[in-house]
Write a structure and sequence with these properties.
The complex is a heterodimer of chains A (about 120) and B (about 180). Chain A is about 40% helix and about 15% strand. Chain A contains five helices and four strands, in the order H-E-H-H-E-E-E-H-H. Chain A has one domain: 3-Layer(aba) Sandwich (Glutaredoxin). Chain B is an alpha+beta fold and about 180 residues long. Chain B has one domain: Heat Shock Protein 90 (2-Layer Sandwich). Helix content of chain B is about 35%, strand content about 25%. A six-stranded mixed β-sheet of chain B has the order 3-4-2-1-5-6. The longest helix of chain B has 18 residues. Chain B starts with a helix and ends in a 5-residue tail after the last helix. The chains are: A alpha+beta (about 120), B alpha+beta (about 180). The interface between A and B is large, with 36 and 39 residues.
Chain lengths: ~120, ~180
């Protein structure tokens, strides 16, 4: 059973490292479509995988956010990556495995996974 | 939707879009009465009577990408398929409350599913909103309240992965306590 007591440990750990985040303008945003279509297609576990992967790799300049319907419901779950100075990359038909690999390939190694992009799907 | 928790996530997103600051989610189930009910209440902008009257119609929606909204029709259908019903009340400027009931043992009654995942996703998406989730069974009830967590965290954001993981595990273990299998 998890208790509020455990939160204290998390708090102490976080408070010691909370100001490490870099300049906001350099932040890369990963956006997950979480409208009815996205949720029905499996966006929740994709979101969870992204948050955990970014968290466990301690990527300080990456934030995971949610949005509504991106507009191509049949290709959900959809994940968009907005990186400073780069064109937006739209990944389609994602699952938790692909989501984790997206973090390591695209965000850590800097290689767009072309096969999963909307360009490859269309 | 494969499980009720996904409908909850979807419907709570509507509340967030309506600017809610407090969202209450309650799931009550009774084996003795053979009922399961889901209630979601928010303090968002609410709907005017005209919009409210048509809200279970898939062709009434606020989404702008296309003129079809399935969120409310899906939960209504899920309830009616399981000999339950769906009600929604809303007051412009006050908020919205929706209730779906189900015959618990009905073959078509969807499983509740991963509520911990739903709450974690909601907190991740809108960490400044207060969520109260209450799960009641014949064995007792479990309440998850972000206000308590916020107090404990003293300014550490609720959306931090370590906090989200704690939330997930806290809810899973809390729910297990009130499930009949453990009695």
């Amino acid at each position: 059973m998890k208790t509020l007591e455990d939160l204290k440990k998390i708090r102490e750990e976080m408070q010691s490292q909370i100001n490490l985040r870099t300049d906001e303008s350099d932040v890369t945003r990963i956006v997950v479509g979480m409208a009815t279509c996205g949720i029905a297609a499996g966006a929740r576990p994709v979101l969870e995988a992204l948050v955990n992967e970014v968290g466990s790799r301690k990527l300080q300049n990456v934030v995971v956010t949610q949005t509504g319907c991106i507009g191509v419901c049949r290709l959900e779950p959809i994940v968009e990556v907005y990186e400073k100075g780069q064109e937006k990359v739209t990944y389609v038909q994602m699952d938790p495995d692909k989501a984790r690999k997206l973090v390591s390939e695209h965000l850590v190694n800097g290689r767009v996974v072309q096969a999963w992009t909307i360009g490859a799907a269309e | 939707m494969k499980e009720l928790s996904l409908n909850v996530l979807d419907l709570a997103q509507n509340a967030l879009s309506a600017g809610a600051r407090h969202i209450e989610i309650a799931i009550e189930e009774s084996e003795a009465d053979d009922r399961l009910s889901l209630r979601i209440a928010d303090d968002g902008s609410g709907m005017d009577p005209d919009f409210l009257a048509g809200v279970t119609d898939p062709f009434v929606t606020t989404r702008t990408t296309r003129p079809v909204g399935m969120g409310i029709p899906l939960i209504k259908m899920a309830a009616e398929m399981a000999e339950g019903d769906f009600r929604i009340r809303s007051q412009k400027g006050e908020g919205t409350e929706l209730t779906a009931t189900f015959r618990r043992s009905h073959m078509d009654r969807m499983p509740v599913g991963d509520m911990a995942g739903t709450l974690a996703a909601l907190v991740q998406g809108a960490p400044d909103v207060d969520y109260i989730y209450k799960r009641t069974t014949d064995c007792g009830s479990f309440t998850f309240d972000t206000a308590l967590i916020r107090k404990e965290l003293e300014g550490v954001p609720l959306g931090e992965p370590a906090v989200l993981n704690w939330i997930r595990e806290y809810i899973v273990s809390g729910e297990a306590e009130v499930m009949a299998e453990n009695m």
